[in-house]
User: Fold this.
Amino acid sequence: MAKYKYSARTEAGELQAGYVEAANQEAALNILKGNNLFILALTATGGSGWYERIIGFFGRVKIKDLMIFTRQFSILLEARVPLSDTLRTLHRQTEKAVLRNALLEVSEDVDAGLSLSQAMER
Assistant:
């Protein structure tokens, strides 16, 4: 599956941007149109070659870092801090580059209108 970056407008006219994974560009267009979006731009983000896979393997998030993130995430949500503020706060406080980048992507996806589960799945 390929990853495509898109910008689109909702039926209400709001700007929405994010990523979609699909077999090809036509399938990505169908997915976005199926969500009642008017596509403004759709570009492939590039394939993941062997180099990116190796870097991804060695750059994975350690279990300890993930446990700390999960605990902090849970505490902030229990304190009724809004989701977007929680993600931005954790992004600023995270020292590990891999987790920090992942949090930035999740935060951008949530701000673009994806649900938290969809953003984390990516």
